[in-house]
From TrEMBL:
This is DUF2075 domain-containing protein. The lineage of its organism: Bacteria, Fusobacteriati, Fusobacteriota, Fusobacteriia, Fusobacteriales. InterPro entries: P-loop_NTPase, SLFN_3-like_DNA/RNA_helicase. Residues 247-613 form the Schlafen group 3-like DNA/RNA helicase domain. Transmembrane segments: none annotated. SUPFAM superfamilies: P-loop containing nucleoside triphosphate hydrolases (SSF52540). Pfam families: SLFN-g3_helicase. It comes from the Bacteria. It comes from Streptobacillus felis.
C-alpha cells in the first residue's frame, strides 16, 4: 500500500472509438500491469463535447462505474432517445476520458465524481453539466488519500485539455466554484441540511402537527415576547404574517457557509436527476417547485449562471420584488423558496415595490421559505429590521421546530484567536493585542501606497485580491463628477502625497469578456476600490481595507461617526409603520458597524488595513506589534 504522502499516480486514458463504440486499446492494458485498473477496478469517466468552437464551450457528463464497457455502451444506445443528454452529443468533438486508480472503490469514485462536478461549475468554458448527482461521501477507507488523488487527476486532465480543465488555482478563485452546490458539506452544514430535509419531509408527509395563530401567541407569551409597551403593535405585526409554519430560519455570521448550504439544498430538491433510496427523506420533496431569491444583482448573475450550468430552469432564480410581483398573479402557492442573504430583503416600500416587506409577502405566496440570515450584515436603511422583529422571527421558527444555526467560521483561514481579534473590533470596538498567526496574514499599513502595492503583489501570486473602503467618499451612480471622469477614494498621506483610486465600476472594461463575472473577478478592478455593495457575500484571497473618516479612535475604543459617511442608505433615519422596539435604536450607528464587519471579514488568507484617522492608525499599529 502507498504511504500517505506518496499516493500513486492515477491512470487516465482517452478511449478510442470504432464502429460507434468506445474501447480501451488492449496493447495499452498489456503494456503495464497498473493499467488494468481501468478494466478491473471501479472507474470515473468524463464525456465531453464542444458546442461552440469559436469560444471553446463544452457540455460535460461525469459518471462512475464498475464496468466501463457496459456503461459507455448504454450511453451510446441512448443517443437516439429524444431529450436525453446523449442526444445532444456532437460526434465530431466527442471525447470519453476514463480515470482509474489502484485505491478506487465505490465510495471514492462517487466522491471523485462529485468533486469533478464541483470544479466544473467554476470553469468558464463549461456551458452545461449533465447528471450532477451531488453525491459526496462520508467516512470510508482510504478517504484520507482522496484529495491528493484528485489533485493528481486534475493535473493530468489539465495536460489533456487546459480549456476544459484549467488549473486548480484558477478555478478556486471563481465565484461560481465558491457557491457550487456540489461542495462537500461540513458537519455543521450537514447537521442543518438534514434537519431542514426532515422538517420538509414531515411537512409534505402530513406528519407535522398543524398549529393555530393562537397557539403561536400563547407560546410567544410564555417566552415573554408579547409583553412591553408595544405589545399591541406586536399583535398587529403577527396579524400581517400569513403562513408562519412555512418559515425555516437559518442564522449564521459572515463566512459560516450559508450560501453553499442554500445552493446545496436548493439543488438537491429541484435538480432533474437524483437517485433515491426507499428510506430517503428527500423522496417526498424531490422535484418540488423551488425558487432561489437574493436581493443583490451581483449574486443574481452568479446564481443564474449556476442554474444554467447544472440544468435547472433559468426562471427559478429571481430578485425578490420580481418574484413577488410575478407570484401575486398565481392562484397557487409555490412549494419552497430559498432566500440567500435574507438580511438584504427590503422592509420598506420603494419605487418598484409596494407591500408589507419582502419576507411577509414571500411567505404569503409560498408554502415554505428557507431564509439565510445575519443581522450584522444589514447595511441599508431600506433593509432595516427591528431587533424585536428579529427576535419574533427566531421564536416563530423555534416554535415550528425550524430554527437552525451555523456556527463554524469557514472563510477566514486563520486561528480562533485571529477570528476573535477581528470580532472584537467589529462587535465591541476594542483593539486587542494581536498574536501573530502563521495561517493568516494580518497587517496594518501606515501608508495607502504600501497597502496598494502589497495587495497587487498578492493578486499577482494568488489572484482574487482587492482594495475595499468604507463608503466615506462621494459616489453617485449614473452621474459624473464636476472635476473628474470618476468618483474617487482620495487619501492625503502624512508626507504630503495624494493617493487616489476610482470607486467600483468606474473604469472601462470589455463588456463581452466580463459578462457573468462578479466585480471581484474582473481583472481591471485591481485598480478600483470596492465597497460593501460589490463584495457582500463574496470571498477574496487577500483584502486591503481602507477605514475612512467615519471610523475613529478615542478613549481606548473605536468610534463611529455616520455623519461623515457618504452613504445615504446609512446616514439617514428610518421610521417603521409598526413600532416593535421599546427603545429608540441608533440604527445609523448599527449600519456603519455592519459595513465595517463586512469589509473586515472578506479575506480568506489575509487582511491588510489602512486607517484614515491618525489615532486609529497609530492604535492599530501599536496593538498589532504588541507594544500595548
Amino acid at each position: 500500500m502507498s504511504k500517505k504522502n506518496n499516493v500513486s499516480s492515477p491512470i487516465i486514458y482517452e478511449m478510442k472509438i470504432e464502429n460507434n463504440d468506445f474501447f480501451i486499446d488492449k496493447n495499452f492494458i498489456d503494456a503495464n500491469d497498473k493499467n488494468n485498473v481501468l478494466t478491473d477496478y471501479p472507474v470515473v469517466y468524463i464525456h465531453n463535447w464542444e458546442t461552440e468552437k469559436k469560444e471553446k464551450q463544452y457540455e460535460v457528463y461525469v459518471g462512475e462505474s464498475i464496468d466501463i464497457y457496459q456503461r459507455t455502451g448504454n450511453h451510446i444506445k441512448n443517443k437516439t432517445k429524444k431529450g436525453s443528454w446523449q442526444s445532444k452529443i456532437n460526434d465530431e468533438t466527442w471525447q470519453v476520458i476514463v480515470i482509474g486508480h489502484e485505491h478506487f472503490n465505490k465510495s471514492m469514485t462517487l466522491d471523485i465524481e462529485n468533486t469533478i462536478y464541483d470544479y466544473l461549475v467554476g470553469v468558464d468554458s463549461v456551458k452545461q453539466i449533465h447528471n450532477g448527482r451531488g453525491n459526496p461521501q462520508k467516512k470510508y477507507y482510504p478517504d484520507m488519500e482522496k484529495d491528493k488523488i484528485f489533485q493528481k487527476i486534475w493535473k493530468k486532465l489539465n495536460k489533456i485539455n487546459s480549456d476544459l480543465f484549467p488549473t486548480i488555482e484558477i478555478i478556486k478563485n471563481s465565484a461560481l466554484f465558491k457557491a457550487s452546490p456540489f461542495k462537500k458539506l461540513t458537519d455543521d452544514q450537514l447537521r442543518v441540511s438534514n434537519d431542514i430535509y426532515k422538517y420538509l419531509h414531515n411537512a409534505y408527509s402530513n406528519l407535522t402537527i398543524k398549529k393555530s395563530k393562537s397557539d403561536l401567541e400563547q407560546y410567544l407569551l410564555s417566552e415573554n415576547i408579547l409583553g412591553g409597551e408595544n405589545k399591541h403593535n406586536i399583535y398587529k405585526y403577527l396579524d400581517k404574517m400569513d403562513n408562519f409554519q412555512g418559515l425555516i430560519f437559518v442564522n449564521g455570521g459572515a463566512g459560516t457557509g450559508k450560501t453553499v448550504l442554500n445552493t446545496n439544498i436548493f439543488y438537491n430538491i429541484s435538480k432533474p436527476i437524483y437517485e433515491f433510496d426507499e428510506e430517503d427523506q428527500l423522496e417526498k420533496i424531490k422535484n418540488k417547485e423551488c425558487f432561489l431569491l437574493v436581493n443583490n444583482k451581483e449574486h443574481i448573475i452568479l446564481y443564474q449562471e449556476i442554474a444554467k450550468k447544472i440544468g435547472i430552469e433559468e426562471d427559478r432564480v429571481f430578485l425578490p420584488t420580481t418574484f413577488i410581483n410575478r407570484m401575486k398573479k398565481n392562484p397557487q402557492k409555490v412549494d419552497i423558496v430559498f432566500i440567500d442573504e435574507a438580511h438584504l430583503l427590503a422592509t420598506q416600500n420603494n419605487q418598484g415595490y409596494k407591500g408589507n416587506g419582502h419576507l411577509l409577502d414571500i411567505l404569503k405566496v409560498s408554502k415554505y421559505v428557507v431564509v439565510m440570515f445575519d443581522e450584522k450584515q444589514i447595511i441599508n436603511r431600506t433593509q432595516l429590521i427591528q431587533k424585536k422583529e428579529i427576535e419574533i422571527l427566531k421564536e416563530i421558527a423555534k416554535f415550528n421546530g425550524s430554527y437552525f444555526e451555523l456556527n463554524n467560521q469557514l472563510r477566514i483561514n486563520g486561528s480562533e484567536e485571529t477570528v476573535n481579534w477581528i470580532k472584537s473590533i467589529t462587535n465591541d470596538g476594542i483593539i486587542n493585542p494581536y498574536k501573530k498567526d502563521s495561517k493568516y496574514d494580518l497587517k496594518i499599513f501606515d501608508d495607502p501606497f504600501d497597502l496598494e502595492k502589497a495587495i497587487k503583489d498578492k493578486n499577482e501570486i494568488h489572484g482574487n485580491s482587492r482594495i475595499l473602503a468604507t463608503y466615506d467618499w462621494l459616489y453617485k451612480n449614473g452621474e459624473k463628477p464636476e472635476h473628474s471622469n470618476t468618483w474617487n477614494v482620495i487619501v492625503h498621506t502624512k508626507d504630503g502625497k495624494v493617493w487616489k483610486k476610482p470607486w467600483n465600476y468606474q473604469l472601462e472594461k470589455n463588456k463581452r469578456k466580463i459578462k457573468g463575472l462578479s466585480w471581484v473577478e474582473i481583472p481591471e478592478t485591481i485598480d478600483e476600490v470596492g465597497s460593501t455593495f460589490t463584495v457582500q457575500g463574496f470571498d477574496l484571497n487577500y483584502v486591503g481595507v481602507i477605514l475612512g473618516p467615519s471610523i475613529g479612535y478615542k478613549n481606548g475604543k473605536i468610534t463611529y461617526d455616520y455623519s461623515k459617511s457618504k452613504n445615504d442608505k446609512i446616514n439617514k433615519s428610518r421610521r417603521f409603520d409598526i413600532k416593535l422596539d421599546n427603545e429608540v435604536e441608533d440604527y445609523c450607528l448599527e449600519l456603519l458597524k455592519n459595513e465595517v464587519n463586512i469589509l473586515l471579514t472578506r479575506g480568506v488568507k489575509g487582511l491588510y488595513i489602512y486607517a484614515y484617522d491618525k489615532q486609529l492608525r497609530e492604535a492599530l499599529l501599536e496593538f498589532i506589534n504588541n507594544k500595548k
